[in-house]
Specification:
Elements lengths: L3 H6 L7 H14 L28 H18 L4 E9 L7 E9 L6 E6 L4
Antiparallel strand pairs: 1-2, 2-3
Helix pairs in contact: 2-3
């Protein structure tokens, strides 16, 4: 990773909105949630439960995980319009389900489809 002054001195690279949104989704998934006694979401509830705590063959638990992820994406990634998170079956017996995030991006005022698959664990 380059230092700040090195990045400032480097020529400008075009901004990739799709990559920025994918990076933010990975941050949400990679951050761990701190539970609170209050029912409302707060900044402390940014993040997801640990994936290893989910039974690998439980579609119900994966759907709950997907529902929370969709809610967090809607709250913390407003550049992704109409987000949806789906649980899809895979042929891999060790990881029978995977999550797919989709929605729409409007980088220049024109909408185009965004599709992102979270890495299998």
């Amino acid at each position: 990773m380059a230092f700040l002054l090195e990045r400032l001195a480097a020529p400008l690279q075009p901004f990739n909105l799709e990559a920025a949104v994918a990076t933010q989704i990975q941050r949400i998934v990679g951050a761990r949630v701190l539970e609170s006694d209050e029912g409302e979401m707060s900044l402390l509830e940014f993040g997801m439960p640990n994936v290893v705590d989910i039974a690998y063959n439980s579609k119900t638990q994966m759907e709950r995980y997907a529902t929370r992820l969709k809610r967090l994406i809607a709250r913390y990634e407003p550049r992704l319009l109409h987000p949806s998170v789906s649980v899809e079956a895979t042929a891999n017996a060790a990881a029978p389900y995977r999550l797919t995030v989709s929605g729409a991006l409007q980088p220049n005022g024109e909408a185009h489809v965004f599709h992102f698959e979270l890495p299998e664990h």
